[in-house]
Specification:
3-stranded antiparallel beta sheet, 3-stranded parallel beta sheet, single chain, alpha/beta, binds glutamic acid
Amino acid sequence: MNQKPQPQHMVTRFAPSPTGRLHIGHGWSALMTIDIARAAGGAMRLRIEDIDGTRSRPEHVAGIIEDLRWLGVEWDGDVVFQSERLALYEDALETLRRQGLVYPCFCTRAEIAAEIAASGSAPHGTDGPVYPGTCRHLDGHERVDRVARGDAHCWRLDMARAVALAGALTWQDMDAGEIAARPEQAGDVVLARKDAPTSYHLAATLDDAEMGITHVMRGDDLRDATHIHRLLQALLNLPTPYYRFHPLLVDADGKRLAKRSGSIALADLRDAGTDPAQLRDDLRAGRFPVGIRAASA
Ligand code: GLU
């Protein structure tokens, strides 16, 4: 734990994407998230990250709520749905647009892959290979014309400009202490997708601030994303929460548990007659079903 004074009232959040039922890794994460809040006399909010119109399903939202209630994870306040907050994200994107910090990108995935293959180098960022910057070089008229014409585009952060404007930044990892932000490793990340007026990075950062989240507990897989979020906080004048990361659960082959891969779903355990109180005790003690373990970071 770092030495900085912690805020008086801790607020954490559990933020699942409704793309399937929750597995025991989610249950473990949700318990750790509520436990750090309760230990500090604080609150935990539930946020449904449903901006992905094709993969998010209402039945999964209902399933997640059922799974959490069954496991005995009781959040505070109303459930927040990202799909109901698109105007908040659009306003923030507009703020960045006015500062010349985002640009429209018309590239398809195939074009980006071809460009990377041709350049012979493929540095890897948070969201996959770093975008080579093709559309950053389009001239202003072409951009305006193509957007006006309705050419499909996402909006990317001009990382070099953003980093130059924000300067050196740090954030607090509750276990490792002060961390120097290195958002540049991610390249020009997408802040608004072709099919949605936001992306995970923009929505999660804005929501954490707007919901008054003081402590973010998330999986190790989102450690790199945190550097981007810290930069967005600086650009948008948002507070920076404390962060803590937990290992992901993996199966006997070392593969991450995933909603789609038939991992042990909480719903299956319930149907098999599992006692949720026993499961809570097991998860809190780090006792996982046979063949499942926490990966080392
Ligand atoms: N929605 C993300 C997930 O299900 C978590 C987001 C976060 O913790 O910032 O993996």
